[in-house]
Amino acid sequence: MSKSTLKNITPFIVLCLIAGLSVFIRTVPNFNDGGKLYNGADIAWLLVATALVFLMTPGLAFFYGGMVHRKNVLSTMMKSVVAAGIVSVLWVVVGYSLCFGTSIGGIIGNPLTHLFFKGVGSGAPWTLAPTIPLMLFALFQLMFAIITPGLVVGAVAERIKFTAYTLFIVLFSLLVYAPIAHWTWHPDGFLAKMGVLDFAGGTVVHLSAGCAALAGAIVLKRRKTHIEHREIPPANIPYVLIGTGLLWFGWFGFNAGSAGAANALSVHAFATTNIAAAAAGLSWMFFDVMKNKKTFGTRLLYRRGGGTGSDYACGRICSDPAEHLHRCGRRSDLQYRRLLQIALHAR
Amino acid sequence: MVGILMTGIFASKAINPAGNDGLFYGNFSFFLVQLKALLIVAAYSFVVSFLIFKFVNFILPIRVSSEEEEIGLDATQHNEKYLQGTLLVTTEGMVAVTETSL
């Protein structure tokens, strides 16, 4: 075994310190709802939805991993999946509290409110999800926080250092994700007070990740193969299909779970998710047809983009297919640019 | 981005009473709110992420070296190698290349 340097040991020591500190958090009994507040059906659905959203992160790994050059497949997948570890720990320590702790001027949550998940098990249900335990709400939100930095991978794939990327995940979660989630989803957040609506993370997750991806691509600059106009054969298109399938599947939890309960609204969101994804997928296919391309290849898989549009809106929009076609057909936001960066050159 | 604006246009209280009515239902002010949120969040997340990337780049080079990029990140970052099927079949049904060196 090679000798360990201080640099190698530091991350592990930090993790040990965190584990050590958590011992000092007092154990308190779980919140007693007196048999009145909780709804079994809501809890069951949110548990499933939380697991569904988690599945999107490995799905994302397959999605991106299949599109890069074969020599970068594992590193690309690893960058998406490692967020599940990093963000989970961060979330328990301080992330949840920054997002949903007592508001400090509508800008950020007080990190001390739920430091080390203090008072999450024993707390009363969240005001916007009154029929499920607070802990479940916190875990559901955790899955969103995990997938967000994972979304950035596409823009920095094939050229960013793994260590640099893990550091980025930590900083992004604390400095970008947490404030924006607080502004938008905490009732005292300043965007929430303005009346901004974001049902399932279109602003918090996708807009922030899209902008971060653009920033990352600008700082890192283009990849060599791209500059030299060399063709990069995608490693494994079936992986992309697996990833798309998992994402679409997970999206039902992402959107329908965001209703915070098992009710008509969540069913509505479920329907909208499917319609939007289907319409967006078809839009892409027809764009290809218009350009007289024979193969639909990876582009067919971009139906994924439609799911994003539906995040904002699925809980609030009439599910009239025409509207969705209109909405998705004109889709040309940052996420599309980010996908283009990989995919057009991967083809 | 399209989604956040479309929510400003097509949102309906009939679907979610906790929500609001959009432009399509004659509520222009809500559309403006969504537009403002879009600009604020996009600007904030871009600028801060940009600074984070610059900061990370400052304390350790963010991009792999040119040689490492050429060899691939699986080998240089993780000491791993991704192998997939070693037999490729052409459209004529003939066995083609194994393990291309691309």
Report on the architecture of this protein.
The complex is a heterodimer of chains A (347) and B (102). Chain A has 347 residues and is an all-alpha fold. In chain A, 66% of the residues lie in helices and 1% in strands. Chain A has helices at 6-22, 40-65, 73-100, 134-156, 162-185, 190-194, 202-220, 224-227, 237-256, 264-290, 297-300, 304-313, 321-329, 334-346; strands at 103-104, 108-109. Chain A has a two-stranded antiparallel ribbon with strand order 1-2. In chain A, helix 3 (73-100) crosses helix 4 (134-156) and helix 10 (264-290) packs across helix 13 (321-329). The longest helix of chain A is centred in the N-terminal third of the chain and has 28 residues, at 73-100. Chain B has a domain at 2-62. Chain B has helices at residues 2-10, 28-59, 66-71, 73-78.
Rounded Rg of chain B: 25 Å
Beta content of chain B comes to: under 5%
How many DSSP E strands of chain A?
A: 2
**Which pair of protein chains has the largest interface, and what are the residue counts?**
A-B, 74 and 57 residues
Number of helices of chain B: 4
* Basic shape of chain A: globular
Uncertain residue ranges of chain B: none
At CATH level 2, the architecture of chain A is: Orthogonal Bundle
Nearest-integer average pLDDT of chain B: 77
Shape of chain B: elongated
Query: CATH superfamily name of chain A?
Result: Ammonium transporter AmtB like domains
Instruction: Indicate the structural class of chain B.
Output: mainly alpha
Proportion of helical residues of chain B: 40-55%
Strand segment count of chain B: 0
Mean pLDDT of chain A: 80
The biggest beta sheet of chain B is recorded as: none
What is the ordering of alpha helices and beta strands of chain B? HHHH
Distance between the termini of chain A: 41 Å
Q: Could you give the order of strands across the largest sheet of chain A?
A: 1-2
